[in-house]
Amino acid sequence: MRIDTERLVLVPLGLEHLESTHAYAADPETTKYMMFLPVDSLEETRKYIADCVAERQKPVPGYYEFAVLLDGVHIGGVSLYFDTAPDIGELGWIIARAYQGHGYAAEAARALIDWGREALNVRRFIAHCDADNLASQAVMRRLGMTLTDASGVRKNRGSDESRREYLYELTI
Fold first, then answer.
1. H/E element holding 154?
2. For residue 38, what pLDDT band results from cuts at 50, 70 and 90?
3. Do 17 and 49 meet the contact criterion of CB atoms below 8 Å apart?
4. What does 101-121 look like in DSSP terms, one character per residue?
5. Quick one: pLDDT at residue 158?
6. pTM confidence score
7. Which of 56, 92, 132, 153 is deepest in the core (most CB within 10 A)?
8. pLDDT at 46
9. Which fold has domain 3-171?
10. Residue 24: CB atoms within 10 Å
11. CA-CA distance, 37 to 123, in Å (whole number)?
């Protein structure tokens, strides 16, 4: 499975991406607004990737995790999860700090929306973010998503405080 965009290639996340995934997943600055990051160890990253590989082998995966490649370099990840219902895909993304600010997250997420619509018949996409994560909010707006709920609460792994959470949605 491979998804090509104008500048990027999305491929299933695998153990060949262990070191590069760990580099951004362990970076406190890159992950400061994320609920399940930063990771604590390379072994935690290895287990996560192994779980992604195992999930992909299921007859009907509950999620898909892709490595985002730029000129063959692994610069981040993009995901599509089906936690709430099989026809509602929850988008997620992370881009390594050195590659942020160039539109890669939006480009990768747009490709995943198109793939989800065509390959999985998903017509509704959601995404959550920390209320202070202005970059992710900008990505969501660029994708055509609309803020539908600003009352959520979350606990980010890298913080001791409860944070406000936003929910954005897109129906195609």
1. strand 146-155
2. confident
3. yes
4. TSSHHHHHHHHHHHHHHHHH-
5. 83
6. 0.94
7. 92
8. 97
9. Aminopeptidase (3.40.630)
10. 25
11. 28
